[in-house]
Amino acid sequence: MATDYYAILGLQRDASQAEIKKAFRRLARELHPDVNPDPKTQERFKEINTAYEVLSDPQKKQVYDLGGDPAGGAAGAGFGAGAGFGNFSDIMDAFFGTAAQRGPRSRTRRGQDAMIRLDIELEEAAFGTTKEIQVDTATVCTTCTGEGAAPGTSAQTCDMCRGRGEVSQVTRSFLGQVMTSRPCPQCQGFGTVVPTPCPECAGDGRVRSRRTLTVKIPAGVDNGTRIQLAGEGEVGPGGGPAGDLYVEIHEKPHSVFQRRGDDLHCTVTIPMTAAALGTKCPLETLDGLEEVDIRPGTQSGQSIPLHGRGVTHLRGNGRGDLIVHVEVQTPAKLDAEQEELLRRLAKLRGEERPLGQFQPGQQGLFSRLKDAFNGR
């Protein structure tokens, strides 16, 4: 033989097809003209391409193993008028690790996910509820059942690409003839055309429709919680499987309680006398009316916890707490009798001229004025 294609690829004569392809990919990465533009390297690259064209084709390989030379004995014939660079996809595979995908693409594709906002009350978030929601999404066209063709008709094989979904074009370059493929412009790569589209969906296989769904809201959801409803989103083109629907929870502000995690907070304002003497304050909680025990001597800013009166834990057992913050109200207007009573109380307690008590780190008025004059 004039040319030893096995030796060009560095293989033994009993090499398998997998070994042949592996050797070609390795050499193509090393010798491709874009990587190594040396003229001698280009000739070597043409040789390995010719060798691969022969050894990767079972019929040509059989002829070659029997003593013939399918490539005509001329190195680089694969780049000329013979095969026309028929292994372009294998070279792409050598550089990018995957061959170009061939064949028509499916008209049926998965639909997109959808999301809807749902406003709920604090009580519904705390204990859970069931809601009915209206959703407007793409659904399967009932006229054509997702096929896209008018009733009584069907899709036909594209006469331009003959069902392949792509058309090929041969161009010349410094490497020789290069064959490239692109989606068929007539069928958009589907391999089929719809001569008579469905009048209801215009050939898309889906229409927009408003539906009513029932959503179960678990106890403990919070602002931003998303509930996934599998398969309730947008139906895909060609009647493809539907995506998912996500229901995003938004909790309405409450007139009394403020939520922080699973705890609830509220403020109760009591008069000065009630704080001093103690009292019981009625409070409408999520569980009904309860009495908050205000102990004698309660100070403004103190907190009273009601355990287990908050929001149900979304993950786990139990509930958060209800924290009642006490605000003591000082009377702004006093009549003569009330003023006299307070003055008598102040005298009895020795508080007619009380000395202010400052906490560590705080300064009185004169200390602040002194620091100001001293430039501190």
Automatic annotation (TrEMBL):
Domain notes: The J domain is necessary and sufficient to stimulate DnaK ATPase activity. Zinc center 1 plays an important role in the autonomous, DnaK-independent chaperone activity of DnaJ. Zinc center 2 is essential for interaction with DnaK and for DnaJ activity.
One record GO biological process: DNA replication
Matches recorded under SUPFAM superfamilies: Chaperone J-domain, DnaJ/Hsp40 cysteine-rich domain, HSP40/DnaJ peptide-binding domain
Superkingdom of the source species: Bacteria
Domain J positions: 4-68
Repeat recorded as keyword: yes
Predominant subcellular localization, coarse grouping: cytoplasm
Quaternary structure and partners: Homodimer.
CXXCXGXG motif repeat start-end pairs: 141-148, 158-165, 184-191, 198-205
UniProt family annotation: Belongs to the DnaJ family.
Gene: dnaJ
Listed PANTHER family: CHAPERONE PROTEIN DNAJ, DNAJ HOMOLOG 1, MITOCHONDRIAL-RELATED
Note on how the cofactor is bound: Binds 2 Zn(2+) ions per monomer.
SMART domains: DnaJ
Organism: Streptomyces alkaliterrae
HAMAP family listed in its UniProt record: DnaJ (MF_01152)
Function: Participates actively in the response to hyperosmotic and heat shock by preventing the aggregation of stress-denatured proteins and by disaggregating proteins, also in an autonomous, DnaK-independent fashion. Unfolded proteins bind initially to DnaJ; upon interaction with the DnaJ-bound protein, DnaK hydrolyzes its bound ATP, resulting in the formation of a stable complex. GrpE releases ADP from DnaK; ATP binding to DnaK triggers the release of the substrate protein, thus completing the reaction cycle.
Residues the record lists as binding Zn(2+) 2: C158, C161, C184, C187
This protein's name: Chaperone protein DnaJ
Binding-site list for Zn(2+) 1: C141, C144, C198, C201
Membrane-spanning parts: none
Gene Ontology, cellular component aspect: cytoplasm
Molecular functions per Gene Ontology: ATP binding; heat shock protein binding; unfolded protein binding; zinc ion binding
Domain CR-type: 128-210
InterPro entries per the UniProt record, alphabetical: DnaJ, DnaJ_C, DnaJ_domain, DnaJ_domain_CS, HSP40/DnaJ_pept-bd, HSP_DnaJ_Cys-rich_dom, HSP_DnaJ_Cys-rich_dom_sf, J_dom_sf
Cofactor(s) this protein cannot do without: Zn(2+)
ZnF region ranges: CR-type: 128-210
